[in-house]
Amino acid sequence: MILTTTNSIENHNIIDYLGIVTGVAINKEAIAMGFSMSKYYNKLQVSIETVKEEAFQTLQNNAAKLNANAVVGIKIEIELTTSNYAMVSVTGTAVKVAV
Which Pfam families did the record assign (predicted)? Predict the structure, then answer.
């Protein structure tokens, strides 16, 4: 599946717009604030990467349910909640492109 933040895909014609799809994921454990900011930052970065991958997988699964072979116009939002949970939300438009 082709994923892009742009509204078109070079060398591919969009033949059908199938709808807006999303993927949301949140880490299962809070990231503890410690004395070392570098350790906190490293743990946060790893957590966000893991959660981002989960959110993108959900986005692709939702697009596949619409028989899409691409998602365009993807927007990514990353939020650290007040309880120190990392949350990632990705949204885009599921499309069918000529291959």
Answer: YbjQ_1
- Cα 28 to Cα 37, 58, 61, 70: the distances in Å are 21, 16, 21, 29
Predicted model pTM: 0.84
Strands annotated E in 27-85: 70-80
pLDDT tens digits for 30-39? 556 555 566 6
Which parts of the chain register pLDDT below 70? 29-41
Domain coordinates in residue numbering, the chain: 2-97
Q: Yes or no: say if 84 and 32 are a contact pair by the CB < 8 Å rule.
A: yes
Classify domain 2-97 at the CATH class level.
alpha beta
Angle at 83 between CA 77 and CA 88, to 5 degrees: 20
Cα angle for residues 49, 55, 7 (degrees, 5° grid): 105
Separation CA 11–CA 29 (nearest Å): 43
